[in-house]
């Protein structure tokens, strides 16, 4: 009996030691996981290069704004910020790529406003929806410029409108693509003036100017940053600015209201968005850092040189502005009977 009890005691002590060892291993593993998880949660973002997709060709205003911002964010983040031009379908190709990217903030889209305020009403089969994105901030906004070929016998806006009314659908206007801000600025001009002009879409704003100078199209209502270059060089003629006041870039060019078309006003803007589901802290960091960069006097000067005013608003404010502006463009698309497959 004594031997039996001794054996039981020995087994109990051995079992206790095993339980103690097991408990220690579990505690060590739990601590290691906690430390690992904490380190991951606290890891700095970004810890690898960030891509900004520009859904239009290089040289247009969307591209210029993206490069100004990307250079500054790259310095702030100590990471490369790569500009990736993916033109086509009024921005839909670049938007779709962004929507399908991992929702981690490493793929951003520099979108023109029309991609969210116009395209949902214009395209019958748009490959993306507004719900596919998390909205970060409006980066910059600026007026458009009514620009015509030098050979066109119209030296002011009233003369252009008279010429278009005398020759319905004979005047061609170029754009950065179907649904682009440049396209819709031209449609808004036609709507306000009651004229019929023919749209010629390109894969980017820069390509539209090439054909404007060559006389293939007679008119472009372009973002003022790009369009003013041709007006200042004398290669094309500026007739009006589409903003509420004259632009410091072109102080001698009247507003559309001053030129006799009071109901015509449109502003282009450019916003950062990313794939839906991106962690809120990442979205908020990108917004804060963008807003901080936009307060830099050197950046403001660069944007002013492009006719742009920095914005840097919150995601909620950006979403509200999209909602507010959408009604205007929905009505113009309907009145102009616009539709794209």
Automatic annotation (TrEMBL):
- Keyword Ribonucleoprotein applies: no
Q: In which domain of life is the source organism classified?
A: Bacteria
The UniProt entry, under SUPFAM superfamilies, shows: Periplasmic binding protein-like II
Q: Where is the signal peptide?
A: 1-41
Q: Which UniProt keywords apply?
A: Signal
Write down the InterPro entries for this protein, in alphabetical order: BUG, Bug_dom1
Q: Which family does it belong to?
A: Belongs to the UPF0065 (bug) family.
The molecule here is called LacI family transcriptional regulator
- Origin species, per record, is Bordetella genomosp. 8
């Amino acid at each position: 009996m004594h031997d039996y009890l001794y054996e039981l005691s020995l087994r109990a002590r051995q079992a206790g030691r095993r339980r103690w060892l097991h408990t220690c291993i579990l505690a060590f593993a739990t601590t290691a996981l906690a430390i690992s998880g904490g380190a991951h949660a606290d890891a700095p973002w970004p810890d690898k290069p960030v891509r900004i997709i520009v859904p239009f060709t290089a040289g247009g205003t969307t591209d210029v704004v993206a490069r100004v911002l990307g250079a500054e964010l790259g310095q702030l983040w100590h990471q490369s910020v790569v500009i990736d031009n993916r033109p086509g379908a009024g921005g839909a190709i670049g938007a779709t790529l962004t929507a399908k990217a991992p929702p981690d903030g490493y793929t951003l889209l520099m979108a023109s406003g029309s991609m969210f305020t116009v395209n949902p009403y214009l395209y019958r089969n748009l490959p993306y929806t507004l719900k596919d994105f998390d909205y970060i901030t409006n980066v910059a906004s600026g007026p458009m410029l009514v620009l015509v070929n030098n050979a066109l016998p119209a030296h002011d806006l009233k003369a252009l409108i008279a010429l278009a009314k005398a020759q319905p659908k004979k005047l061609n206007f170029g754009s950065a693509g179907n649904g682009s801000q440049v396209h819709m600025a031209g449609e808004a001009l036609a709507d306000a003036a009651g004229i019929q002009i023919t749209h010629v879409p390109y894969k980017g704003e820069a390509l539209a100017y090439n054909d404007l100078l060559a006389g293939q199209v007679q008119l472009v209502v372009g973002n003022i940053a790009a369009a003013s270059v041709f007006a200042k060089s004398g290669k094309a003629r500026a007739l009006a600015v589409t903003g509420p006041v004259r632009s410091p870039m072109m102080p001698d060019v009247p507003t559309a209201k001053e030129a006799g078309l009071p109901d015509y006003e449109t502003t282009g803007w450019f916003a950062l968005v990313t794939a839906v589901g991106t962690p809120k802290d990442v979205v908020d960091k990108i917004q804060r850092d963008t807003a901080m960069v936009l307060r830099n006097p050197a950046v403001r000067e660069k944007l002013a040189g492009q006719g742009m005013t920095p914005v840097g608003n919150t995601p909620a404010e950006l979403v509200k502005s999209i909602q507010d502006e959408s009604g205007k463009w929905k009505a113009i698309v309907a009145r102009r009977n616009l539709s794209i497959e």
